[in-house]
Amino acid sequence: MVAFFGKGYLPLHAATVETKRGAALISGKSGFGKSTATALLAASGRRLLGDDLCLVDVSASPRPKISPAYDSITITDRVRETILTALPSAEILPPARGTKHRFRLGERFCDAPLPAWRFVSIEISNDSRAHLRPMAGAVKLQSILNAVHYQYPVFRYYLAGLAAKRVATLANNVSAASLFRPYRRELGEDYLDLLTSAIDDDI
Fold this sequence. Notes:
CATH topology: Phosphoenolpyruvate Carboxykinase, domain 3
Oligomer: single chain
CATH class: Alpha Beta
Number of domains: 1
Number of helices: 6
Radius of gyration: 16 Å
């Protein structure tokens, strides 16, 4: 990750989805459903630039650009069948991180940089239904800052100032929203509709 910082990028622990307006970044803590969300979007026909890491070129004009990362997706048992049904020709790769499954995205991989458009943070809610909430100001800035990928904690001390400047540039160029999803409840078609709204619609 230090090398990416040195080349002018801002590395974020986030998935990236192609939209008509540019790239939508989807972040979330481990276990919050980031991979599930991106798998559902890929299965619905969306193209991904990556499912776990995104590289933001904040120096790009007129807006920061997101470069493609990995051409594979890592998912849990929960959405494995969804991917296999939607992408029957998907290449199955050796498993990663224990029980998780890996698939090569193939035609669902976007291999061209896209301008940054939206930042979505997945959060856990006690509500029975998922819902969206716009983010702005300091809340948006902190949410993006929380997604910065330093790889090792020791690098945070050395790179925090540089990261903060690049986060501020990105925050000034994207709209943002929090997507609150129920804890340990099945995610149906209404969740996919909300995901689509989160990455596509004006908020």
